[in-house]
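Record format v2
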Amino acid sequence: MIDHTHDPRAQSWVDGAAGHPDFPVQNLPLGVFSHKNGDTAPRIATAIGDHVVDLAGLAADGALPAGLATALAQPTLNALFRLAEADRVALRHALFALLSSERCRLKVTPHLYPAADVVLHLPFAIGDYTDFYVGIHHATAIGKLFRPDNPLLPNYKHVPIGYHGRASSVRVSGTQVVRPWGQLKAPDADAPVHAPCRRLDHELELGLWIAGDNDLGAPVPIGTAWERIGGLCLLNDWSARDIQAWEYQPLGPFLAKNFATTVSPWVITAQALAPFRTAPQPRPAGDPQPLPYLREEGEGALAITLETTLRTAAMRAAGLPPHRLSHGNSHAAMYWTPAQIVAHHASNGCDLHAGDLLGTGTLSGPTPESAGSLMELSQGGKVPLPLPCGESRTFLEDGDELALHARAERDGFATIGFGPCVGQIMPARQPWA
Amino acid sequence: MIDHTHDPRAQSWVDGAAGHPDFPVQNLPLGVFSHKNGDTAPRIATAIGDHVVDLAGLAADGALPAGLATALAQPTLNALFRLAEADRVALRHALFALLSSERCRLKVTPHLYPAADVVLHLPFAIGDYTDFYVGIHHATAIGKLFRPDNPLLPNYKHVPIGYHGRASSVRVSGTQVVRPWGQLKAPDADAPVHAPCRRLDHELELGLWIAGDNDLGAPVPIGTAWERIGGLCLLNDWSARDIQAWEYQPLGPFLAKNFATTVSPWVITAQALAPFRTAPQPRPAGDPQPLPYLREEGEGALAITLETTLRTAAMRAAGLPPHRLSHGNSHAAMYWTPAQIVAHHASNGCDLHAGDLLGTGTLSGPTPESAGSLMELSQGGKVPLPLPCGESRTFLEDGDELALHARAERDGFATIGFGPCVGQIMPARQPWA
């Protein structure tokens, strides 16, 4: 589905939008904002350059397809993503026309606001949040640390491994992350202690926002699974490695993860990402073929450039920019595609609903510099990473600001970005003082 | 908090309520119903004997505390359980007066309906569902089957083990359960097959319904954790043992569980259960003491009688009643108390909200006849259980109707029951035909 909304020559009349690294007119992401001053009720928007456009306002003026007005007047995107894909395609086309055609300037301008004047919110009321584990290089590297003798378990190349996470503690980029307390047990200690986490980590993931609904008992065939992906975001699955190591057997991570999960605010739609779909990497010789319910034809994979940056309190004080921790690409990292993730999740009849969030799992590439967590970058905390200002890190310290970045790039197409996914670590609180 | 609403001599004027095994006037559970005919919008109710009372109707008549009218007019219990505990105490007292005092008969009668004429719904819009694993005899027995050398892991007696489950697929008692498909791998097979589950099981659990809200980053101290338990239900954590065995490492059960979870419709309130609280069983000599954030004083445990029954299609055809599979007591089964479960869940700052559901984990007692799953009762599928009609079972077969039952009993108090938690197994569908 590559059409004129992907024409790289198209430019928006909005100041600063042409050549914008994240939000040129070819992107048109969807999100929810409110004004910092004045009316603070959340409203649906798109981003264009360094501005946002109030879509509820545009719809009320009759400038958008009439059938979308009710969904666009909601405080979340859930209703809009419950509609048919054709409705979101129609919205994209209408927005593209309004923002690329100079003669629409007067119609749009009353609903255009500088991004600096608004606050962005979580785009959906999240029903369920599931986290997968499709980054095979991450699974291998972490597996080596937790199970040196058995890094990649026998099910990995047959099953898109996933588990349920906590929906209530998902927050939008910019929300501070309080260092959690937990049970920590050193390998040589007799008993655990209850103390603030000492091995606080990030995990670089993509998030899939589900569109549409399937009833309980009605699986999603692999051939239609892409239609259930409304769009993508960046997702930081903050992880307390010391809590995780002690609690995770036999039922998986729990308090090590559910104190916070951060997502980027803009939904980069499946339509905007269409040009960046590509064939999955061939499975290495000897790997099993997927079972039929997971067998996908065509361009099921996504090539998205990923980057992680860190800025410490000392760096901020010295006026230094963020430091790049890692850079890689989703294509090299993912053993299973987005459609395989969705089809597997629903293969037992599990019902997925618009606004559900599915994390891919940490997207580390095959090389050390593309690792998506400090656990990998510091080799389990054994090798500190040097930083500017003479500092170093094995895990995150209070005041650290960790940011994830993503861009879709391809020759002949305008680059589109996700906008950052940021969180700053705050000191643990003394809750039982 | 034992008051006159627990007086065993009290009786309701409603026909059949006096001596009712589940719903005498001392119970006063809360739920959501709609009429089978006529107005089918969901409304909040209590149960009394074989009747339900429409609380929205009573409130609209001014017969209940005025401050509750808005919460009682909702289609779920979430708003009511977001209020202070004192509000629900006031509601209990008002209902007790209305239903025990003959002179209130005229006031209540217009809102009284035979249970046979109504449908019961899920009582809450569930935000997040978490399942714990506090049944130590179950954990030991299952551990033996999955890890013969290592049944109870070293963290078990320090950490109330839990993991996140799927909120979207929780259904109310009576909803049919479709046998799920999944990846199954025999121990001696080279690769898994995709097929309908062959080892479908139940798990007998209690569910805790959360009341109130704590902000992200604000743990719940153990001393106030009981206030966060709005009430209890029965919970059947249907489990596909063959899917589970293959998928569960390293991140825990996923598709083996999230195809369906069934809860009983009535919320047995914390107030109704107050007389049945008791001191936890002393920890066996040599067991570690809980860390301070889990150290609880007083009557933290609950003594609730539990029972599981099975009725096959052949038994129904022969007019036979359900067959008892197991019977036990929550007190003997639970290594951690409800307050310890809540305090642990929020100990890292995880936010819990009114309407969240926390399963206890399977509540098997120390003896074979009190096992809460077929996996235990059939010793991992090796010893079939004889049934009436000459049948036997290792795991559930299509047409089987599995029911959980619970009662709170104590000398000097009226027995109160939970009402059944029932599900019937339906054949797998051929979704990819």
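The first strand of chain B starts at residue 30 and ends at 35.
The two ends of chain B are 58 Å apart (CA to CA).
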